[in-house]
Amino acid sequence: MILPILAYGSPVLRKKAKDIDKDYPNLKELLDNMYETMYGAYGVGLAAPQIGLPIRLFLVDTSPFADDEVLDEEERAFLKDFKQTFINAKILDEEGEEWVFNEGCLSIPDIREDVKRKADITIEYYDEDFKKHKKSFSGLVARVIQHEYDHIEGILFTDKLTSFKKRLLKSKLSNISKGKIKVDYRMRFPDMKKKR
């Protein structure tokens, strides 16, 4: 089932999410719905706060990046096959050169901005079967994970912009929170009881 994605301004997007355990109610169904929601909105990641749940859960599927001609064959193959569920994730380390990439967010449609992030991360998390993992990732996969991880920490990519950029985006962000935007996926807006 495709769920509505919460728009910028929704209070849950600013909450630090809580851990869950393997007995979380209807977890498999929730994950299926989240994947369906993400694909329905043409996203590469989705975090539980974006559908209104303040829990430490997000998913990533970088296959849309595999078509990028700039990447080498090995990178494209890795991105094409990378699909992962992250539960109770904790980034242990972020290192390497900071690099800039133009990011967007399903909760903040029609806004894309350059964001600096570290190139490499080490993260500890549970998968959908509640098996624990500790892995390191680099490049685009690391960036998508960092973006989604920020969601479970109550951080949005717009928080990482300069104060000048934030001022320039203020009215656009306000319009998003009021539902004054056209999107081709279901959204729920904080300032109105309006769904699309």
State the main characteristics.
two-stranded parallel sheet; alpha+beta; Peptide Deformylase; 4 helices; 196 residues
Instruction: Bin the helical content.
Output: 25-40%
Which sequence of strands runs across the widest sheet?
Answer: 2-3-4-5-6
Give the number of domains.
Answer: 1
Average the pLDDT over all residues and give the rounded result.
94
Number of separate helices: 4
Helix/strand-derived class?
alpha+beta
CATH homologous superfamily, by name?
Answer: Peptide deformylase
Name the helix and strand elements from N-terminus to C-terminus, one letter apiece: EHEEHEEEHHE
Contiguous low-pLDDT stretches (5 residues minimum) are none
DSSP strand tally = 7
Report the top-level CATH class.
Alpha Beta
What shape does the CA trace take?
A: globular
**Portion in beta strands:** 25-35%
Computed over alpha carbons, the radius of gyration is 16 Å
* CATH hierarchy: architecture: Alpha-Beta Complex
Write a short abstract of this structure.
With about 200 residues, the protein is an alpha+beta fold.
Describe the 3D structure.
The structure is a single chain. This protein has 196 residues and is an alpha+beta fold. It has one domain: Peptide deformylase (Peptide Deformylase). Helix content is 27%, strand content 31%. Strands 2-3-4-5-6 form a five-stranded antiparallel β-sheet, sandwiched between helices. Strand 4 and strand 5 form a beta hairpin. It is globular and about 40 Å long. The model has no long low-confidence stretch (mean pLDDT 94).
Write the layout of secondary structure elements.
Layout: E1 5-6, H1 27-40, E2 45-47, E3 57-61, H2 73-81, E4 83-105, E5 108-126, E6 132-138, H3 139-152, H4 163-177, E7 187-188
Parallel strand pairs: 1-7
Antiparallel strand pairs: 2-3, 3-4, 4-5, 5-6
